Amino acid sequence: RALVVSLFFKSYLAISRKLCDAGIMPPDAVPQKDLSGADKFHTATLRSSQLFERVASNQPNHDPIGKPKVHASALKQATGEAIYTDDIPRMDGELYLAFVLSTKAHAKITKLDASEALALEGVEAFFSAQDLTEHQNEVGPVFHDEHVFANGEVHCYGQIIGAIAAANQTLAQRAARLVRVEYSELQPVIVTIEQAIEHKSYFPDYPRLLTKGDVEKAFAEADHVYESSCRMGGQEHFYLETHAAVAVPRDSDELELFCSTQHPSEIQKLVAHVLSMPSNRIVCRAKRLGGGFGGKESRGMMVALPVALAAYRLQRPVRCMLDRDEDMLMTGTRHPFLFKYKVGFSKKGMISVCDIECYNNAGWSMDLSFSVLERAMYHFENCYRIPNVRVGGWVCKTNLPSNTAFRGFGGPQGMFAAEHIIRDVARIVDRNVLDVMQMNFYKTGDYTHYNQKLERFPIQRCFDDCLTQSQYYAKQAEITRFNWEHRWRKRGIALVPTKYGIAFGVMHLNQSGALINVYADGSVLLSHGGVEIGQGLNTKVIQCAARALGIPIELIHISETSTDKVPNTSPTAASVGSDLNGMAVIDACEKLNKRLAPIKEALPQGTWQEWVNKPYFDRISLSATGFYATPEIGYHPETNPNARTYNYYTNGVGISVVEIDCLTGDHQVLSTDIVMDIGSSINPAIDIGQIEGAF
Asked: What is the pLDDT of residues 261-318, one digit of tens each?
């Protein structure tokens, strides 16, 4: 109702302005302050500039590290020639898989009848929980608490009940709609975090608690104590390529999978589990993904497992690529969070203590929610030093599709709480929020609440650089003037600093492998455990190999990520893809360099082609594997108190100016300045692309 009235008033202002301009109404009939209420937003012309460190070029000509090299498949992607999973040409006898999805949030399945669907010509098979043993049907990335097909009960809308294999997509989807499912509904249906708290619907072993210092004493001594809460909703991944998989039986007991996943090894492992086969009979391959953002770290199994099952049972190639609406319905989102906090601080705004409860909405299964919650608990203070801390964390079980990894993995949600807290403190002590931020910033040498020493902490420099670059104070003065002159349009400016820990939260994932093959003509084929998701990982890894071998990048090629080249890989996630895989590739290159050293000594003036041709005739291996494990991490308060949780941190500061239309709530970001400290960039063009893309 308010919106309708606002739009009516907007049209009144627009008409009045035209009448004033035409001289029909007196010029001061509507106050000048009100007139801009008639304006609408128009897409501004984009202007941007990127600043990065130039690398001194005293290195040999083909050392590409630190240079803004073009993404290895950028031209193919721009022209549409790049091949994605569903672009693989159709094979002879191929079938398409379509899903039968739950239409209830919490119910028992009383009847499942596919006879009408199977009667259609071209429909080959229907698969459901009946086709698997209970053990085979139980899957999950860490805890096997999910099912390939719903087992008598559905826990969320859009859960997979069965799958139809048919001659083509249209037919398969039509047949899937003909499968009759009858339910008897169950109570309660829990959707929100508040409902989960009311019903005490938590996963076992929660809450988790983390304490540092003397919280009660600090509250007693604080000048001010303030309690509040904040919340953050979910977010759809919206990768351009939805989940997709193609499975091809290579023999009666071998299966090849092309899958749009960030974690091929996990797909291989779960397919082996569901088909009761050893992993060495299953190959999972991923050439490139059309975006992932975490949404394909563990949820790829929803499509890959039924497709693999159908291909294996029918001994025919099977494919499935979700439509956008199916993808959004079936897969989870970013984790919604609720934070309840109590903070103690001095009259000047120095924070001395914080007691915070973190609740995340996991959806119906655990997936990676425990790890997302842990990262949120470790990032709730963002860049601010709080000497006394008590953090509690709850993973809430609800009747929603299982929420999953999403860019930042709990970090952004935690930092969101910190930014609320710092603004509350500044408001209560009536000081400029920038002063309160700087007063509370961590300094180099400080310890976090999980006992990690900050060895280098450049947040103050990022902060100062960003203020200067954005002309913050000039913009602030301009905003004050603008807001005074316009009643229905308002502008604001905000600054947010960040601190993000780089490492997997689970110790054993911080490892990677690589395989390097050098051919007699001097060309090099690289394989590593990471997946190219569009983020430029392959480009960076090629740069690492080019420097390590001292050859031009044009001689190096990465074909794809495949479980038969590098086994037992970690997911490409947690911002460690280039760290782990780059180091593994360097390890492999160093082994090759050792073997080539005597030949280079004997032929100091030789070319790369001559150096690699000779070992072939001398019967020296030109293939090497590499491996890397991140050292000195794996903190645990009892068992490993001296280790670090994160390998290092990246820091950044962003400043945005936003304008809102107070009548309609419409808004526009007018300008943004970002300063990121990412150490020495391997490829500034790609790193800036990542930062801009994330923004």
From this structure: 999 999 999 999 999 999 999 999 999 999 999 999 999 999 999 999 999 999 999 9
Q: Are 142 and 368 in contact (CB under 8 A)?
A: yes
Cα–Cα dist 132/114, whole Å: 17
The residue assigned the tokens 């909405």 is 361
Average pLDDT over residues 606-620: 95
CATH of 511-629, one of 3.60.110.10, 3.40.50.880, 3.30.365.10, 3.40.50.300: 3.30.365.10
Average pLDDT over residues 584-589: 98
Here the tokens at position 108 are 């028992």
Residue 400 CA to residue 369 CA, distance in Å, equals: 13
Of residues 641 and 70, more confidently modeled:
70
Q: How many CB atoms lie under 10 A from the CB of residue 368?
A: 29
User: Does domain 86-187+240-331 match CATH 3.90.1170.20?
Assistant: no
The answer to whether 449 and 210 have CB atoms below 8 angstroms apart is yes
What whole-number distance in Å separates Cα of residue 232 and Cα of residue 338? 7
Q: Could you give phi then psi for residue 170, rounded to 5 degrees?
A: -60, -45
Cβ atoms 262, 292 nearer than 8 A: yes
Using an 8 Å Cβ cutoff, are 377 and 391 in contact?
yes
**Other Cβ atoms closer than 10 A to 105:** 21
CB atoms near residue 672 (< 10 Å): 14
Where do the domains of the chain lie? 1-38, 86-187+240-331, 511-629
Phi, psi of 112 (to 5 degrees): -135, 110
In the chain, % helix, strand, coil (3-state, to 5) comes to 35, 25, 40
Q: What length does the chain have?
A: 695
Which spans in 199-254 are helix H?
A: 215-221
d(CA 41, CA 663): 13
**pTM across the whole model:** 0.96
Q: Is the pLDDT of residue 60 over 80?
A: no
Closest of 343, 417, 405, 323 to residue 377, by C-alpha: 417
- Across 571-583, b (16+ Cβ under 10 Å) vs e yields bbbbbbbbbbbbb
d(CA 155, CA 398): 8
The CA–CA distances, whole Å, from 413 to 335, 390, 457, 468 equal 8, 17, 21, 28
